[in-house]
Structure formats: structure tokens, C-alpha cells
Amino acid sequence: MAENRENIRLSAEEISGGDQESSPFGFDFVIVGATGDLTMRKLLPAFYERFRGDQIDGTTKIIGTARSPLSSEEYRTKAAEALKAFVAAETYDASKAEAFLRLLHYVPLDMTEQNADWSALSSLLKTEKGRPRVFYLATAPKLYVPTADAIAHNSLITDTTRIVLEKPIGTDLASATAINDGVGQHFRENQIFRIDHYLGKQTVQNILALRFANPIIERIWNADSIAHVQITASETVGVGQRGSYYDTAGALRDMVQNHLLQVLSFVAMEPPTAIAPTVLRDEKLKILRALRPMTDDMIRTDTVRAQYAAGEVDGTTVGSYLDDLEDGESTTETYLAIRAEIRTARWAGVPFYIRTGKRLAQKETTVIVQFRPQPWAIFPDKPEPGRLVIRIQPNEGISLSLSSKDPSTEQFCLREASLDVSYEKAFNTRYPDSYEDLLMAAVRGDQVSFIRRDEVEASWHWVEPILNGWAANIRPLETYPAGSRGPKSADDLLARNDFVWKELTDAC
Questions:
Q1: Which of 264, 289, 417, 492 is deepest in the core (most CB within 10 A)?
Q2: Helix (H, G, I), strand (E, B) or coil at 195
């Protein structure tokens, strides 16, 4: 195991990400759990888009495996229905879809059974040297290690084989470590791709460009200029069909331990020496380790957890979280707000506020950087301190709010104005789904947008005391009406420092 940990330090060739050319090439891609919702809704449409964009050639084999007793033709029929349902109308092309479906194959197989008959799958995998081979585990995390064991037992690991693990990696630090150790028994660290679809979002990746390609931004990106940072991921939907999974996870495991801590690390990290896997992930890790540990007192005063009650969303009356569960009894949080601190010189005294929730008033994922006010007043009106808004979704873009003289009055009155950039309008291009980039990066062996094992474990190390504190009811569970902006206690969290949450409607 020590040898596997040392492999975290990648070679110069691996740091480069391998061949980055976009010309079409062939590979073998095995999807374990190929009949599930993720495969049909995200993975196959993503591959279709890259096939439509001439990045995948006709020798490619996308092989689905699951327990369902389907033939390859029956699987293609199921996949064809998924493409029609989930590919955007403006990019769906029937002839392209038909050609793409010919790349699909299906093998009924329980991948956790080492002694099952693997000959059908093995015969589909090409053996020429250098051909990429990817196993994508779209399954429950408890199956990751047994599946890795079975792949190794059947001698299917080559020098160019990668394994992709969906989040969550475990449910706590111990289970995450067990998964990393178990998969690491067979795969080197540079073969393990822990996927977080937020890292495939162009707007999250653009945080790096915004900061490090624009010196004017980076020079004010510190405690001298910034009062606080807000990271919000809110949804109007409830748990839907994910109730059984969500009730074992909750908002903290489902959103913060992975997605939002990754966004926070992009916002707070020091400048990397290169946009390369080892270098970039080293800087993210430093931030995750610099998060101030949450004590019981901090959990009591600096966290909020709540669950949605019945209410009205977009004019429709909806039930509570308990109504959405089969058993109707749960203390799982569907909303949280956390005040975090980063113990570095750059961010000394700057609180980072994280919030996420379901059944809220609007759907938005944003980062709001609130700048400090002018230290002395020279205008009759006290100017509103400027802020930078990074819209991750929807309406991807950035806006910078500034105070300007109001031209409609003779007095020297100030009014807030925004410099706004919509990425869709600025670049006049389709914004790809995050899985499109991530799947092809895994095929190429480029780990820039994937998570290293020590990042996973550092995230759990910070999150786990909060989970334990909530389990001990140090911070009692509250409720909030569906369709609201969350419980009042979340507002109080910011009000202690004379701050307020900025919503997308009033932040831009």
C-alpha cells in the first residue's frame, strides 16, 4: 500500500495529461451499471455528443454490463430512447444517433462475482498495445472494491486501463479510506479517476482562468479587499426518485463533501505553477487541510441544518420531505448553511459561507465574492461595496457590481450598476454537459479535473465532525417551508457580521 501511495506523485508524462489531440480515436469503455439512470441520462448522451463532434472513431466499443438479461440489440433500443429523451433537440441527429448506437454492446454480468463467466466481456475488449480501456463504475460505492477485485481476478487490467469511481467515495472517512485502499490494491493512483461532475463544468473551470489569467483580479483576491465569500447551490426540486439514497446521505454528504468543497478550493487556492494534475491538486489539498476544524461550539453556532416542510413552489403546492419518503420518518437534512474559515495568510478573517438545499425558491449555483466597503465616506450616499458574482448555473457567466453616478439626477447620487458577461452570448457556442469533457479526459488519462485520494480523505476529515455533531443533536434540526429561501437561522448566521445572503435575482 505504501508503494501505491507513492504513485500519487505522477511522472512528467502523466502530468501532461497524455495525448490531448481532438482527432477521432478508438477505445474500449465498459460501463458497470449500464441500465441505470446515470448511464441513460448522462453518460450515453455525453458520448453521443463527442461522437457527433468527430472525437470518437468507429472502432470504439462502449460496453454496458449489468444484471439485466438483455441482448445487445435490446440494449441499443433502450439507449436509442434515452438519446431521444436526453439529447438537446438542436443537436440530435437521427443518422448520427444510428451510427453511434452501432458502437454499443451489452453483456449481462454480475461484476462483483469473480467466478462468473467473463468470456463474453473479455472477447469484446481489444488487446492492441496502447489502446485505452476504461471501467466506469456507475454503481453503489459498496460495490467499488468487489468490482475492482473481479476486474483484476479476470486479468483485464492493462497499462492503459483506468477505473472511474462516481461520488460519493464512502459515507465517512473510514469507508472512504477502505474504498481507496481496496481499489488501490489493483490500480495505481494514476489509473484511478474519482469523478465529480462539478469539476467538469466550464464555469467552475473558468474560476481558474478568471483568477490566474487576469492579474487585476488576482491582486485583490485576498483578505485586504474581500469581506466574505458565499457559495450557494439551491434547487427547487425535492428528492424525487432518489429518496432512498438521499435519506442515507443528506445535503452535507451529497453536496458539500464533494461538489462545494471542490468549488471552495478553486476559489481559495494559491496560484499553481501549472494547470497540471499533480500541481493543481496539491494546491486544492492545501486549502482543504487549511479549513478550520469544526468544534462542538462551532457546530452549535456556525452551522444550520433543516428539512423542507410542505409549501408552494412555482405556484404548485408540494408536500414535505417526510411526505416524499416511503416511511415518512427521518432526521436527514435537506438544507444546510455553514460558516467556514481558512487558516492561511490570504484568507485570515474572511468567512466562507456555504449553503445548499432542496425545495428552495429558485435554482442557482453561484459564488459571490463580496468586497470590503470604502473605509471613509466622501459621497452623500454610502456606496454599496462591489461584488463579483460567478454564475455556475443557470445563465452561466460573471458579473461585477459597481457604484456609479446616477445620470438621471443633478445631485451626486450613486446607483449600483453591473458589468455582466453571459458566456453563451460571449462565445456563441453550446455549453457542453460536464460529463462530455470528463469521460473523454478519462479515456485520454488526463486527471486534471478528477479528485485525488488525499483530497477525498481531507474533505471527510473536515466534514465528519459536523456529521457527528448533528447526529448528537448539537445543532437541532429545523424546518423551512418548501418554496422559501430556507430557515431564518441561516440569515442570522450572516447577520452576526452584518452580512446578508445575496440571491441570484438581486446579486447581478
A1: 264
A2: strand
CA gap 228, 240 in Å, rounded: 34
Q: Distance between CA atoms of 444 and 440, rounded to whole angstroms?
A: 6
DSSP-derived 3-state class of residue 205: helix
Tell which CATH architecture fits domain 2-195. 3-Layer(aba) Sandwich (3.40)
228 known ligand binder: no
Burial degree of 198 (CB within 10 A; 0-12, 13-18, 19+): buried
- For this structure, is 105 an active site residue? no
Q: What is the tens place of the pLDDT at every residue in 39-91?
A: 999 999 999 999 999 999 999 999 999 999 999 999 999 999 999 999 999 99
Sequence-separated (6 or more) residues with CB below 8 Å from residue 92: 83, 84
201 is in an annotated binding site: yes
Domain boundaries, given as residue ranges, for the chain: 2-195, 200-495
Q: Is position 67 annotated in a ligand binding site?
A: yes
**Which listed residue (105, 153, 259, 461) is catalytic?**
259
Among 253, 281, 297, 285, residue whose Cα is nearest residue 464:
253
Coil, helix or strand at residue 404: strand
* Residue 282 marked ligand-binding: no
Considering the domain 200-495, what is its CATH architecture? 2-Layer Sandwich (3.30)
